[in-house]
UniProtKB/TrEMBL annotation:
Keywords: Cell membrane, Membrane, Transmembrane, Transmembrane helix. This is SURF1-like protein. Its main location: membrane. The keyword Transmembrane applies. The lineage of its organism: Bacteria, Bacillati, Actinomycetota, Actinomycetes, Micrococcales.
Length: 254
């Protein structure tokens, strides 16, 4: 193993293995990125639908509902909003501003994320009167940290909200993408203000693109094969040298 020849072959094997691992990691990344891009493209190609065509109060959140854009009209309930702490936007730490929207069509509550605020900022008031929204739906989050101050939460946990808000509740929440004060042609678009920034809907969970994932597996297998071949060749030559030395010793003693 310490002869120049085998050290040189080892260096070559390691270089080839490292190159194969890097190519495998690149293909693995491509597998994730391609699957994510296809999922995002599929969601964005869906038409915007009325919320009644996608989700009803207490109805189970649909399997393909995450990211679906819907229109919904109603009024914000004053005094029932809260902030979700420790949320990032473009690398900045802040909070999500969540409001209770009473949907006009059903009278049920829909939690909506109006936007993101820097930590410590004062939340701007929600528009009064009727509003019409385009929201991107998302399923409820897992329970978060308990015992936070009033008006703060660490997640949008619908099981908590159903006990705190009066009336029925939708089994999902929405990220506000468009907001219009008033319903109909006379509606006035509402722009985010007071430090409030719209939150891009989270990317959907995606599986791998299996073709690129198989390419990645092949490159990883090649890396392992190169190292294994070097080891096997070295072992074979080592055995041959050992056998030759044994034969020479036997010949010397005979």
């Amino acid at each position: 193993m310490i002869t120049p020849r085998w050290l040189g072959l080892l260096a070559l094997a390691v270089a080839l293995a490292v190159g194969a691992v890097l190519l495998g990691r690149w293909q693995w990344s491509v597998a994730h990125d391609r699957a994510r891009a296809e999922a995002v493209q599929e969601i964005q190609s869906r038409p915007v639908q009325p919320i009644a065509d996608v989700l009803a109060p207490h109805q189970s959140f649909p399997d393909d509902g995450s990211g679906q854009r819907v229109t919904v009209a109603g009024e914000y309930a004053a005094g029932d909003g809260f902030v979700v702490v420790d949320r990032l936007l473009d690398g900045r730490t802040g909070v999500w501003l969540v409001e209770r929207l009473v949907v006009a069509e059903t009278g049920a509550n829909l939690a909506v994320v109006r936007g993101w605020l820097p930590a410590g900022s004062e939340a701007p008031p929600a528009p009064k009167g009727e509003v019409r929204l385009v929201v991107s739906l998302a399923p409820g989050e897992s329970p978060g940290q308990p015992d936070l101050p009033k008006g703060e939460a660490s997640s949008i946990h619908l099981g908590t909200l159903v006990n705190e808000w009066p009336g029925d509740l939708y089994t999902g929440f929405g990220f506000v993408m468009e907001e219009t004060r008033g319903v109909g042609d006379a509606g006035e678009p509402v722009t985010a203000s007071g430090g409030l920034e719209r939150v891009p809907p989270p990317l959907p969970d995606t599986s791998l693109d299996w073709r690129n994932a198989s390419y990645a597996a092949q490159w990883f297998a090649i890396a392992a094969f190169v190292i294994w071949m070097w080891w096997r060749m070295m072992r074979q030559e080592s055995r041959a040298v050992t056998e030759d030395e044994s034969e020479e010793k036997e010949a010397a003693h005979s």
